[in-house]
Design a protein that fits this description.
Elements lengths: L2 H19 L9 E5 L4 E5 L13 E5 L15 H10 L5 E5 L2 H9 L4 E4 L18 E6 L5 H14 L5 E4 L3 E6 L2 H24 L3
Parallel strand pairs: 6-7
Antiparallel strand pairs: 1-2, 1-4, 2-3, 4-8, 5-6, 7-8
Bound molecules: the ligand CSCCC(=O)C(=O)COP(=O)(O)O and zinc ion.
Zinc ion binds next to loops.
């Protein structure tokens, strides 16, 4: 194993322990990846428990989602990862989680996007330096056909080069970063904002 793969494997394994521990990747849900080279990424094998990942639970795929390792089935959502690495060459890690708050908020939101404004914590997102700017998070309807879902996500990414993450309704969150720590910081920031939003909505008179 190359030093890069060893380092990225450990970063994914550690991310899984953390995200499972926070309750954001329950019951074998979620998938994680990191860029190995300009043409390959390291990704979780489908169906594995994300709190108990080992190096054997990871595989390399090309930028079109083709497995480069015999006998290992890549995540069912591989195409949602590869499209992000192809979208922006600076992306080094992608995380997808299934928290209760992301699931509930994406189901109760009537609109096709959420707007977070006036939260100081927004500054945890890459490229946001003031609570006065807005964080726009699209919500895509879920689909068992991941290629079709990726086709619906792509125009949004192309039209919103500053997008920091998106929700899939009733399913979960995708976010990314230049490094695994950047992506983890964004997951935490999103979870904070989702919880605030749910509490705010619960307080609002009907
Ligand atoms: C048990 S969750 C259903 C599949 C899913 O949404 C997910 O994130 C995990 O899929 P994978 O193939 O990456 O294990
Ligand atoms: Zn999922």
């Amino acid at each position: 194993m190359t030093a890069t793969r060893q380092h990225l494997s450990q970063a994914i394994i550690d991310a899984g322990r953390f995200l499972y521990g926070r309750g954001w990747s329950p019951a074998t849900s979620s998938n994680y990846s990191a860029r190995l080279t300009s043409a390959e990424l390291l990704l979780t094998v489908s169906g594995r428990h994300k709190g108990e990942l080992t190096a054997d639970d990871l595989l390399a795929v090309d930028m079109h989602g083709n497995s480069l390792e015999e006998g290992k089935r890549p995540s069912a959502e591989t195409l949602l990862h590869t499209q992000l690495y192809r979208w922006k060459p600076e992306i080094g890690a992608v995380l997808h989680t299934h928290s209760v708050n992301a699931t509930v908020l994406s189901r109760i939101a009537l609109a096709d996007s959420l707007v977070f404004a006036d939260y100081e914590l927004q500054k945890a997102f890459s490229g946001i330096s003031s609570h006065e700017s807005q964080v726009l998070v699209p919500i895509f309807d879920n689909d068992q056909d991941i290629a079709a879902l990726a086709t619906r996500v792509q125009p949004w990414l192309d039209e919103h080069p500053d997008c920091v993450g998106y929700l899939i309704r009733g399913h979960g969150l995708y976010t990314w970063g230049e490094t695994m720590s950047d992506a983890l910081r964004q997951i935490e920031a999103f979870e904070f904002l989702f919880e605030c939003e749910l509490k705010m909505r619960a307080l609002q008179p009907r």
